[in-house]
Amino acid sequence: MPQQKRPIRLLRNLNAKIAAVPMMLTATFVFAGGSLWTVLYSFTSSKLLPRFSFVGAEQYERLWAAPRWNVAVENLFIYGALSLIFQFVIGFLLAALLDQKIRFEDTFRTIFLYPFALSFVVTGLVWQWILNPDFGVQSVVRSLGWTNFEFNPLYDADIVIFGILIAALWQGTGLIMCLMLAGLRGIDEDIWKASRVDGIPTWKTYLFIVIPMMRPVFITTLVIIASGIVRVYDLVVAQTGGGPGIASEVPAKYVYDYMFHAQNLGQGFAASTMMLLSVAVVVVPWAYLEFGRRRHG
Amino acid sequence: GPAPATELEVTHWWTSGGEAAAVAEFAKAFDATGNHWVDGAIAGSGSTARPIMISRITGGDPMGATQFNHGRQAEELVQAGLMRDLTDLATKEKWTEVIRPKSLLDSCTLDGKIYCVPVNIHSWQWLWLSNKAFETAGVPIPKNWDEFVAAAPALEKAGIVPFAQGGQAWQVNNTFAVLMLAIGGKDLFQKVYGDKDDTVAAGPEVAKVFKAADDARRLSKSANVQEWNQATAMVINGKAGGQIMGDWAQGEFQLAGKVAGTDYTCLPGLGINPTLATGGDAFYFPLQKDEAKAKAQEVLASTLLDPKTQVAFNLKKGSVPVRGDVDLNAANDCMKKGIDILGKGDIVSWTDQLVSQDTQKQFEDLFSEFFATAMTTEDAQERFAKIVATAD
Amino acid sequence: MADVAEISGPQTAIEPRGARPRHAFSRRNIFIYGTLILVAVYYLIPLYVMVVTSLKGMPEVRLGNIFSPPMEITFEPWVKAWSSACTGLNCDGLSRGFWNSVRITVPSVILSIAIASVNGYALANWRFKGADIFFTVLIVGAFIPYQVMIYPIVILLREIGIYGSLSGLVLVHAIFGMPIMTLLFRNYFAAVPEELFKAARVDGAGFWAIYLKIMLPMSLPIFVVAIILQTTGIWNDFLFGVVYTRPDTYPMTVQLNNIVNSVQGVKEYNVNMAATILTGLVPLIVYFVSGRLFVRGIAAGAVKG
Amino acid sequence: MTSVSIKDLSLEFGAVSVLKDLNLDVGDGEFLVLLGPSGCGKSTLLNCIAGLLDITDGQIFIKGKNVTWEEPKDRGIGMVFQSYALYPQMSVRGNLTFGLKNAGVPRDEIARRIERAANILQIEPLLDRRPGQLSGGQRQRVAIGRALVRDVDVFLFDEPLSNLDAKLRSELRVEIKRLHQQLANTMIYVTHDQIEALTLADRIAVMKGGLIQQLDEPLTIYNRPRNLFVASFIGSPAMNFIKGEITGTNGSPVFRAGDLTISLAGYETQQSLAPGHCVILGFRPEHITISDVPGPAGRSCEAVVDLDEPMGADSLVWLKVAGKAISVRVDSGRRYQPGEKVFLIFNPAMASLFDVATENRI
Amino acid sequence: MTSVSIKDLSLEFGAVSVLKDLNLDVGDGEFLVLLGPSGCGKSTLLNCIAGLLDITDGQIFIKGKNVTWEEPKDRGIGMVFQSYALYPQMSVRGNLTFGLKNAGVPRDEIARRIERAANILQIEPLLDRRPGQLSGGQRQRVAIGRALVRDVDVFLFDEPLSNLDAKLRSELRVEIKRLHQQLANTMIYVTHDQIEALTLADRIAVMKGGLIQQLDEPLTIYNRPRNLFVASFIGSPAMNFIKGEITGTNGSPVFRAGDLTISLAGYETQQSLAPGHCVILGFRPEHITISDVPGPAGRSCEAVVDLDEPMGADSLVWLKVAGKAISVRVDSGRRYQPGEKVFLIFNPAMASLFDVATENRI
Ligand SMILES: Nc1ncnc2c1ncn2[C@@H]1O[C@H](COP(=O)(O)OP(=O)(O)OP(=O)(O)O)[C@@H](O)[C@H]1O
Ligand SMILES: Nc1ncnc2c1ncn2[C@@H]1O[C@H](COP(=O)(O)OP(=O)(O)OP(=O)(O)O)[C@@H](O)[C@H]1O
Ligand SMILES: [Mg+2]
Ligand SMILES: [Mg+2]
Predict the structure, then answer these.
(1) Where is the ABC transmembrane type-1 domain positioned along the sequence (chain C) (predicted)?
(2) Which atom of ligand 2 is the closest one to the Cα of E192?
(3) Cis ω on the peptide bond leading into residue D237 (within 30° of 0)?
(4) DSSP state, D214?
(5) Residue E251: is its pLDDT beyond 80?
(6) Does B372 reach chain A within 8 Å, measured CB to CB?
(7) Is D101's Cβ below 8 Å from some Cβ in A?
(8) Is the CB of E192 under 6 A from ligand 2?
(9) Is the pLDDT of residue B13 over 70?
(10) In 3-state terms, what secondary structure has residue E210?
(11) In a domain, A45, yes or no
């Protein structure tokens, strides 16, 4: 019987490979290439236009000496930690409440979700207006008689990050709630029944049984929230412009400002590289575990 | 012969009331040549607009003409060969002779070639005062910065914000530079910004300027505004005592129907040191592949410098024409004061020309932090000196 | 549960029978609905403020209370925001931006979803060597701040020669939508029973036939999610819209920014709010109409264990 | 004494009535199996007993106490679920103790109970593993253990074995039976697997559409099904049914369907078999004999072999009799070829007769 | 003539070797069943034959043609899947025609084939429904129809019945058997249900860990399992195993395990039964008889009843013999009480003997 030749590997699944070409191009040239390019030029003294004039780590030295960058990094940590915690907690609580077989579930869900439809620019504007001390909450409460009422987050450097957080939570928790709700709905009814038979209070069931079971949802959620945190920009620009002073600066804004306003690409690229680095440290191991290795099934 | 109508997109960041009215004059004049001005206004001040303009030019999709503050903002674009060389037109129309002060055209010149058209002269060094506010507070209208500071408690008592200061970084940064020029004087200014002498910057004279900045910070505590024209509006409405802002603020006063001298008072050089800087706006013309567009660019360039257009534009904008040979009888009080000072030659180059955008940005970062926090003047000065040391 | 114990206590006067008695105003219900309503108020306030303010005249706005309903309803601000608010010399409000946004959003959504769905399908059902590496890079790309990428993209678009054109912007949206969209579709298609795919192969259907005739018709939920996410994302985009287009094709958000930031003396908050609502209207409608499908689709595509 | 007693239980999901006026008494220490097709309301009934569903009407007593409104934990029941429903992130020990800790059972008592349960179920070596590290059978054992440690009188099982493979299922079946003999608790066990039902139950309640069709001992249900549904539902391979009518000759009734006649002499019934009555005759495959020679007249007929299905120990032979397909269970020693002509011999004493109209046993 | 022929087939998933140098020849028109525990590689083998998995090494021939690298559609196979895998958005007709349209079969030919398949499977009334509107059994029939219309020589079935309930399963089993008799195609059928395997197969290949353990006719596999694995895997209730050794007295070998001795006279074997050989003795439950009186010496022993599991037609009685649990299948007529003392009688001719070390049949 004739021994048949094994076909050429590259040509098998050719259509699939063709279909994946946009992804390969994007991954290679835009994401990998763009990042590499950015890293490369962060070692140059490029100003308005990228020029390959190598200056070593000078941009990084300057970056970490810049008070504004340090404030931005610090803000990102505070904002990130708070936003992570609050989004998870609020999103989960809302989902848990909606999961109690309540009436008007659809209505509530729509109410919690609609801000997600609005852009950060819009969100920033609206909350800037509501938090404005001269017309917003503060002045309304004062006009009701509490003349000493003080709620002026956007113009108080110490708490401005909370002002931004309020808006960010308003915009983002709806989606998190949706994800959590989907996760809760995916949990076996029998688990609930078993815990009722065991006489375990609801809150304990959530805390010790249900939440640990929702690990995959939490990971998805974490990814979504985390990527949003690193990128936070529009909201700050629309709401405070980084102010008062530099109190609400964030790294993404530093990048943008130095690349374009200050016309110092090298500095902007150095800041970009730091952001890329932090993203890589967190995301690459995760992505590798999630998509690189688990290949069976 | 009459050129066929060509559409030319012109980008700029003149979107406030007075500015828009002024730019309309340009558009009108350009349209009158049979071409068409396509307006590409980008709101939110130069810092928002410039990145977009630069991206467009470097991205290979240049607009027909674009506004920059002449100086160093577009330097690299010119070096990269992305801008049109206007030398021929300039020679033909004898720009070197009509444009004054000469420094304006120098800022447009690189390696002996001219790349931009200055359209106005702006000066920052003005203190705008609301007569109404001082009447309400029952104090005489101050004649200089020190009197202004002295009158502040009375204003505060009357519920008026003494000093209206927009929160944006470029505003606070310029306020400081204005204080430097007014309080420290021309030489100090030149030493710090021009020569980048960091020992001077750390010295006692600059410390005095920081003291004044500290006053400004204190007096503007409860202003709570971001945009410059909102701050101006406070002065116009008598909600604030005064504001340091460039001469373009005058456009807002005019638009509100206010009359210089009766409704408001202007103090060039803060009433201390009547020296003005000759900053300003200029138009650059990115290289175009399209022949017709290139022609229209030329038409636009000469239209911008046309004496009639110059007058119409600058009256609305509140700035001074770049031509010395135009009739400015229509100018008001404040503008005439400015023209006088310019005529006397009490001029300096402004920070735009003296330091790079990068350094500017670092100054901005410093001063926006300074004005928003309780940073001590000593700390601020130390950091200031450091930036001066590395400035370019 | 304390109330139950009370009833079934020693006094056997009422013999428990039928459904367990329940009180509409039990502590549990008060807590649940109370919390939900309270939170709902927090979520609704901004919308309320926007709508109310947009219906007031400027004098009323200046008077002050942002929460008080308009004494005199006026649609002036809406008309102005839509058709006559000025940016520089252009005084045609948001109307032009609206159509630009439509012209940007529609092809961008279609292109990005087309690419991502085919791609997700290839990744889920036609695994081939090396695909995972590209995919991992792509996912990591989802975290890269857009600002970092502006410059490389400018260069990329310049090299391709479509900088500033509509197709350039569409391409940019397709690129930046790719990570999340591909992930979504990949997860969804991976959950489609593999046997279905095998059956189609035995039936002689190739890559495209399986995609078009088998996979597409069964992926409505995930397409709904993708369309919703992309429509809102692209419609709301400001950064790319402003950087990669020119003024005559500016999307609505850029125009919104221009109107809001072009202060002519006093801020016209009512016009700003009307403009804000108008800009958000399209995604809002999309959400209100398809919110239910959205949750279902999310469950199908995003939360796979 | 009854252990669980259900009086007039009704349950509706919105407009859908799932259980209708159901009455059931389960004796102390009895092993009761609820058997029925999917969707007949078995799980629903079990959940009502456990207190996991709010009933619409009726009462439930456990150990004589009215528990209609009690919480599940206070009813003195333990429950085992089809999907095991183990808490995945807790160790086996954690799964077993979680409920007890919540109930405030003292430490040494907990330890004692765990030890006992682990001992009975032979899961001592597994105590520190997670459910994810256990096989299906081990998980099921842990799930039973969780009910066991509750030290209750009534165990409820909801298809506890249906997720397991056949081999494991038969092994665990024996274990559950042993457990019952050892503990002597009341057990209510839901299944749709009749072998489980037949092997485990003291009594079986066959359900359909929310109603109990027959409640009897396994062999009674197998041999004397009360109606057509029970007859057809129980037994695999299924009972053979032939539709026909009674033609009485001389008081000894005869069943006739077309050409086929079978004498019913020896069939036990309280009712009279009136001639002309339309009936369905049922024979289990093992109650028909295949023979190469005809049997006694009126109890035998000719048949053609259609298919021979060997099943290891025995074979199922499909035959055609007067146009009807009949299956007969025979020893696997002899193979039959399709087309082969044989004779069938019926034993009326093992037959079942059903009224065509009411479908009830006559 | 062989219809499907597999030569030295190996398949690896990364580092995991699932199939190892497997050889298999399937005759023309043969019904071959692949039987084995979960994860043994049955589906993998089937997918290799269908061309749905790329093999690592070896060759596959169908109808004498080397198809190792052919596309699935070009191999002349039809396949039926466990989950039916019907295209949910197409009507039944659409499902049946999809493949034909892809292959460019002319319209009237398509119509002819559909008609034939629908006729054979009796799904004419369903042709315009969607799969979602069909019952499980109907869906399975459509899935078979989809393979049928392809008009191919080889049918591959991957556990086609395992998603159905017991009743439907036994019905469809008969239908598949009939279909095979009618079409006389080659069929390769994967299952882990031994009843299916035993009833359907011409030959059964019992697999474990990617290797074929035994390839034989059903009754041979049932009665003469080649090794311990096959013996224990086949048969439900499972074979009883007793570990012991041969003690030969006067050339007639005897099996001894503790106190228990069973004469092996009559056991057929090629090998000699050397005394001292450690062996495992296997008896199927139906090959042991329970008696109230002791049987012939050396073939009988005393036992104590442990548990009686009635299964309808017959019962499984669990007994303790010399400390070992033994199950015996008896008629359900007589019930045994736990603790009752009885005698077991063994028939050595039906026994199986395995070497302890190799686990192979002796
Ligand atoms: N939450 C519910 N809402 C509405 N109907 C329901 C609900 N739960 C069950 N039902 C219906 O009640 C009937 C009985 O369901 P139940 O789960 O008790 O069946 P079952 O006998 O346990 O079936 P299975 O053997 O499939 O588990 C079914 O028809 C089902 O559709
Ligand atoms: N894509 C894959 N990648 C890695 N290993 C796999 C893959 N598919 C199957 N396997 C492994 O190959 C072995 C054989 O799988 P296969 O599906 O053939 O088993 P099976 O005999 O059909 O079992 P079942 O009866 O459960 O269907 C299993 O151990 C399985 O884990
Ligand atoms: Mg059930
Ligand atoms: Mg399989």
Answers:
(1) 98-290
(2) 25
(3) yes
(4) E
(5) no
(6) yes
(7) no
(8) yes
(9) yes
(10) coil
(11) no
- Cβ–Cβ gap E71/C214 under 8 Å: no
d(CA D191, CA D175): 16
D220 has a chain C CB within 8 A of its CB: no
* pLDDT tens column, B53-93: 888 888 777 888 998 877 677 778 888 888 999 898 889 88
Chain B hits for A66, CB-CB cut-off 8 Å, are: 362, 365
Helix axes B204-219, B357-372, angle to 10 degrees: 60
Q: Which ligand is nearest to the CA of E158?
A: 4
Domains in chain A, number: 1
- For B251, nearest residue in chain C (alpha carbons): C265
Degrees (nearest 5) of the Cα angle D136, D140, D146? 145
A173 inside domain = yes
Regarding chains B and E, contact by 3 or more CB pairs under 8 A is answered as no
Taking the C-alpha atoms of D297, D298, D303 and D309 in order, what is their torsion angle to the nearest 10 degrees? -110
The answer to whether B238 and B133 are in contact (CB under 8 A) is yes
What is the atom index within ligand 1 of the atom nearest the CA of D45?
A: 18
CA separation for the pair D84, E44 (Å, rounded): 29
Mind listing the pLDDT tens digit for each residue in E309-328? 888 888 889 999 878 889 99
A296 lines ligand 2 (CB under 6 A): yes
Give the model's confidence band at A6: pLDDT under 50 very low, under 70 low, under 90 confident, else very high: low
pTM: 0.84
pLDDT in tens, D193-207: 888 899 999 999 999
Is the peptide bond prior to B101 cis by the omega test (within 30 degrees of 0)?
Answer: yes
Tell me the residue range of the domain where A149 lies.
60-296
> Who's near A3: CB < 8 A, 6+ residues apart?
E59, E66
Instruction: List, in order of start, the domains of chain E with CATH numbers.
Output: 2-233 (3.40.50.300), 240-355 (2.40.50.140)
**H and E: helices and strands count for chain B:** 20, 13
Question: Are D188 and D157 spatial neighbours (Cβ–Cβ below 8 Å)?
Answer: yes
Question: Residue C53's closest CA among C258, C254, C276?
Answer: C276
Please enumerate in sequence order all residues whose Cβ is within 8 A of that of C126, keeping only pairs 6 or more positions apart, or say none.
A13, A15, A16, C207
Q: Read off the CATH number of the domain in which A179 is found.
A: 1.10.3720.10
Residue D89 sits at the chain A interface (C-beta within 8 Å) = yes
Residue ranges of chain C whose CB lies within 8 Å of a chain E CB: 193, 195-196, 198-205, 209, 213-214, 217-218
As a three-state string, the secondary structure of C146-191 is HHHHHHHHHHHHHHHCCCCCHHHHHHHHHHHHHHHHHHHHHHHHHH
Q: Is the ipTM of this complex over 0.90?
A: no
- In the numeric block, the tokens 């236009």 are attached to A49
DSSP state letters, A59-75: HHHHHHH-HHHHHHHHH
**Lowest model confidence (mean pLDDT) among C43-57, C62-76, D185-199, D302-316:** C62-76
Ligand 1 touching residue D192 (CB < 6 A): yes
Alpha-carbon span C144 to B377, nearest angstrom? 39
Is residue B7 classed as helix, strand or coil in its secondary structure? strand
Domains of chain C: 27-74 (no CATH), 95-248+280-302 (1.10.3720.10)
Tokens of C80: 């102005």
Q: Would you call C203 and E98 a contact, using CB atoms and an 8 Å cutoff?
A: yes
Tell me how far CA of residue D248 lies from CA of D262, D273, D346, in angstroms. Answer: 11, 8, 18
Name the minimum distance, in Å, from the CA of A226 to any CA of chain B.
27
Judged by its nearest atom, the ligand closest to the C-alpha of residue C194 is 2
**Residue A131 located in a structural domain:** yes
Contact D313 E286 (CB under 8 A): yes
Q: Label residue D168 left, alpha or beta by phi (over 0 means left) and psi (-120 to 50 means alpha).
A: alpha
* Residues of C in Cβ contact (< 8 Å) with E103: 204
Given the structure tokens 């049997």, which residue do they identify? D295
A5, part of any domain:
no
Looking at the partner chain, which of C244, C260, C267 has a beta carbon nearest the beta carbon of B230? Answer: C267
